Amino acid sequence: MVRITTLALLLAAVPLFVQSNHLLGLFIAVLFSAYLAQSWNILGGLCGQFSFGHAAFFGVGLYSSLILQVDFGWPAPLALVSAAVAGAVTGLFVGFVSFRYGLRGSYFALVTLAFAEILRMTASVVSFTGAGSGKYLPTRLGIEHLQFSKSGYFYFILVLFVLVHLLVLAIQNSRLGARFAAIREDEEAASALGVDVFRYKMIAILISSAVAGVGGCFYGQYYFYTDPHIAFGAAVSIEMLLAPIIGGAGTLFGPIVGAVVLRVAAELGQSLTGGVPGFNLILYGIMVILIVRYMPDGLIGGLRRPWALMRRRPTATAG
Amino acid sequence: MLTTQGLTKRFGGLVAVRDASISANAGDITALIGPNGAGKTTLFATVAGFLKPDAGSVTFGGRDITGMKPHQICDLGMVRTFQIVKPFGKLSVLDNIAVGAYARFPRRQDALAHAAAIGRQVGLGGQLEKIAAGLTVAGRKRLEVARALATSPRLLLLDEVMAGLTPTEIDEIVPIIFGIRDTGVTILLIEHVMQAVMRLSDRAYVLNEGHLIAEGTPQEVVREPAVIEAYLGPGAATRAQSFASRNAS
Q1: Is A189 on the interface with B (CB under 8 A)?
Q2: Cα A166 from Cα A176, distance rounded (Å)
Q3: What is the mean pLDDT of residues A150-170?
Q4: Which domain holds residue B109?
Q5: What is the pTM of this model?
Q6: CATH number of the domain that B158 lies in?
Q7: Contact yes or no for B71 and A194 at CB 8 A
Q8: Closest Cβ–Cβ partner in B86, B99, B107 for A179
């Protein structure tokens, strides 16, 4: 709580010192990645259900927000709420068909991947999504339209970022979080101890996908455009799961660390190679291999371990 | 408190438990013994809702619970442990026990306080902050008991909590089990360590190849020829008898 508040206050001061729009954009991108990573972390990290298709929830939020504003004239704040609802409904559906039949591990991952792909292909053929040419949001600056200046967007994503981290913190410090962790560690033991495994997995995917849906809405407000690949492409799903895995899945700060590392690596890669397309993906791949090999608990877990060993040593020698 | 009637569980062509009728009386420690592969753990899993019986019924506290889910059965006050222990490896000992405690105490501070008290009761008081994966075998067995006990059960099913322990560790855990019984919890346990069964249990059932072959006090069942033969092979009972009479003369 203290650390999150401190971080939020420090970040809130950033636009006062950073004048460069490029740099501010970088901050926005990192906060946005961390937000989406935290969404994945609720289901994948806290509850242990690895989704490979979180783009499904992100994309449904993104499209529903744009379509409701553009074609139905809904005000942007209402579209934001409906993006959460649309994401949650999609999540509940995917969760129901997977968890009801006991799909776990890689099977669940494959089902989520398949759902995202189905949605991507559907969005590229049906007319109400704008098919292959995508969907535009007209520019209407103003807080009632949730469209801002660069620093306004920074505060918009900062608020979402803080809210999702407070949410995760609250989950971790409650019965809900304890039961999520129990399911992640051992489903059978959890159910023996009175945990309704199906119900709690549904709660996890509900929260996670609603958060992802809101992320989709932010994307639409910030970039004014989407197409099927942006909304449902595998790249979105992969970024959402890479950051928590690199940083430390199931921890509060892991997704932030992972998002920073990924973004810095991508930027470095871009400037070093002079912008070779896809180079960041190669970097991501190398990082994942190294992390999975040497720090299976992510950077946070990997750095915590030697630290804990160092602190334990005196008592160990005494005993 | 617990009664099974004609409980049967098949796995394909194999009948793991056949027509088993057992009962555990309130306040007692009841033991379920038998050679490896006799179907003891299957019987446990069927009673606790992890497997659906092919025939028969389970009654708990006067209520038919056949076919209920494990978490529903836990809510009613029956909880099992696992022979192959299943610690939540990355969580601390306290957080492990708290998962059980949350079944009765929705609020975090109540659950943690209850979990800490249970931890001390089973002798894990000094290791509450330790990560569960770092516990010794004996520690994990205790943790398994503690988590189950934290759900405040009326009936506790213990599946071989002494397997793999040294005689000293067994001597330490026996009084803990008596202590649990003395707080009013009925216990049904599976055990291979016969010495412990003889000390602990009020009644014992012997299972062999899915059949119940004997029941009674532990002193009675170990003298049953059928039980001796189940453990030592056909004819063992008569050989043992003649050996005993030869030594006597």
Answers
A1: yes
A2: 14
A3: 96
A4: 2-248
A5: 0.92
A6: 3.40.50.300
A7: yes
A8: B99
